[in-house]
């Protein structure tokens, strides 16, 4: 026979299911907010990378008597070429490598990069210099930095 004075120390199945349902609803509400915060963090890193590249361009111009680099973009003619290869001395990667913080050449949200055959996460450069011409036809730097457009 049961002791009528004994206390109940366990949860019922219904109570546990209600708690699990409440927790799952809270998680479903919070997950989109967390992914938005993660993407905002990536955008901040990308903006800091662009600031580092511009600071490198400014440092280059101070070092070279207020002259901006004459740059060529090897990836306009060969998307699989390494933009930091010393065989292409007038590319942005080679000219500005010592002036730009290492790691600033890649945006964490990039969908394309160079060398193109390296694959996502292995790219060395994910920004493109819009006014840099092909090898042999480079132009003086009046650059707009932007992420590399996705391949179609």
Describe the structure.
With 152 residues, the chain is mainly alpha-helical. It has a domain at 48-147. The protein is built from two helices and four strands. It has helices at residues 13-63, 92-96, and strands at residues 70-71, 127-129, 139-140, 145-147.
Rounded mean pLDDT is 81
**Strand coverage percent:** 5-15%
Low-confidence stretches: none
| Secondary-structure element order, N to C | HEHEEE
- Give the overall form: elongated
The chain-level structural class is mainly alpha
Cross-sheet strand order for the largest sheet: 1-3
Please specify the SSE layout and strand pairing:
Blueprint: H1 13-63, E1 70-71, H2 92-96, E2 127-129, E3 139-140, E4 145-147
Antiparallel strand pairs: 1-3, 2-4
In short:
With 152 residues, the chain is mostly helical.
Which features does this protein show?
single chain; 152 residues; mainly alpha; two-stranded antiparallel ribbon; 2 helices; 37% helix; elongated
